[in-house]
Protein: Cytochrome c oxidase assembly protein CtaG
Organism: marine metagenome
Amino acid sequence: MERKKITKGFWIKLVSVPILMFFFAFALVPIYEVLCDITGFNGTTGRVEAEQQYEVNEERLVTVSFFSSTMPGFPVQFGPKVNSIEVVPGKFYTVSYVAKNN
């Protein structure tokens, strides 16, 4: 069986193909951005709308209960500082939990 001689053209192709692939990968980013701008599939709208503000109904109260449990024999006590609070939907509240190592 006779081996073919490796020519200079083969080496040029062998080296140039990975280099061209590398530059093509960098070219894909701007091409993708242009394509997305043209088609509108950019994932962003290009504009920002103001957040819709809701009115808080002070007369509506909701009771929120807090519960915590740990596996029996687990050496940590974990629980809320308060068991339940009454909240008005739309307002912000802060509730704390306590964790204690035994």
Q: What stands out?
A: The helical segments are 8-39. The radius of gyration is 32 Å. The longest helix spans residues 8-39.
